[in-house]
Amino acid sequence: MEKHPYQELHKKNPRVYVLTNDVTRKFIADALLAIGAKPIMGIAPEEAFELTSYSDALCLNLGTPTKEKFKSYIKALKSGMKNNIPTSIDIPGASASHYRKDISTQIIKQIPNLTNNQEWPRVIHGNPSEIISLSGNEVVSQIDSIHTVQEASLHTNNLKDIFHSIVITGPQTLIKGDSTTLIPGGSPYMSYCSGFGCVQTALMAAFLTLPIQATEACILAAQLMFCAAKQIKAPNGPRDFQNKFIDHLFQITYKEHL
Fold first, then answer.
1. Counting beta carbons within 10 angstroms of the beta carbon of residue 238, is it exposed (0 to 12), middle (13 to 18) or buried (19 or more)?
2. Homologous superfamily of 5-257 in CATH?
3. What is the pLDDT of residues 207-237, one digit of tens each?
């Protein structure tokens, strides 16, 4: 790749189909627009297969699940597999309730092992407790993680044969693919605003459209998240931090084009 990945992303303007939770939809759309992607936001099962088929990437966020949304998840996932659409999956709250864990588990069961389908790029993202819950451990009945990323990395055997990369986020981000990368945290303010993990999963989907390895795409997304967060000086509060975060995503990725 001759140009910097940020330049390549703005040049490509990848279409990212996002099926996400009800809480963070606008934040995700704004973040994708800021880095040069074109978000398509939707949840209707009637269009999920079609929208995935002509998108450049699929971001599947399993937060606030319902039976109707589950239909959309399955249709989008099947389209992603059929058309080799790069896919990032987020599992918010998989450790919080048995219902959410069951939804995440059913989605993962739809995905073939890498040995059977290496060409379709797919990655998964969650906090440590969410990742651990998918390894067969019991749910802990809370959203926030009670484990470290290092602890969670020991419970990924059932995921490493399915996904090109496993991304575990907390105060640090651990990215596990062919090798393991640890990226330091960004700002304490990120824990006072909803949606930063969801945004990271969407950025991962966007970077997966570039001609780079899946692990590198996840690293680029994490580095961009934390770089933007660290550049925000003296925010007035969580909402101000969130707004400035979008501005910094734009400034970091687009400054070469101004």
1. middle
2. Ribokinase (3.40.1190.20)
3. 999 999 999 999 999 999 999 999 999 899 9
